[in-house]
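Contributing new complexes? Match this layout with calcium ion.
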Amino acid sequence: MNSGEKHILIVEDDGFLRDGLAMLLEREQFTVRLAGSLREAEAALNDDTCLIILDVGLPDGNGFDYCRHIRKTNKNIPILFLTARDEEYDVVRGFELGGNDYITKPFRSLELIARVRALLRRVTPDETPTDVSIVLHPSRLQASVDGRIISLTPTEFSLLHKLISNKDQSLSREQLLAALWDGDGHYIDDNTLSVNIFRLRDKIGHEAIETIRGVGYRWRGLK
Ligand code: CA
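Output block (do not edit by hand):
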């Protein structure tokens, strides 16, 4: 099955949301194909699929498992996960499995379009190194990098989680401070943020966190 036209595959079992997404994307001149289950997704996916918008909870399986399945044969197709608000830890899991980005429901139309455009712009050259080798263990406040266990403070852990969850996006110092603040209610000041970034680089690897001058930081991943 090959339509010969580049399209975005929307995999979502909520018909109302699926149709809404389709309308939204078509209005922006994208061509879409729709699937309400993994079985339908598998039938619709072909060489002309240029991006997959993938729900996590589907009637015949889990979007993360499907992502892993796709990555066995296709390393480059961008995958944007749709997640529910309480699945934040799973988001990290999604990145480990090769997802490129995620958006939390409910989302704003403009944000979705912006993410889609960003993913389509980022045409990945072959065999780009990814940070599949880092795994976070929230309950133990640890990260494992290539199997090496690294213990983190609660602040370092939150910081790392925030950076990885927003992979390839620049996060302002304000955004990072806001993410750290809600933990124990302890206020983290600007200087403490710098110190924590420094320590995190020391533990994880200096290359992994990039400084964006005048803005903040960006997770670059482990090479
Ligand atoms: Ca669902």
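Reviewers usually confirm one structural detail per submission. For this one: The chain has a mean pLDDT of 83.
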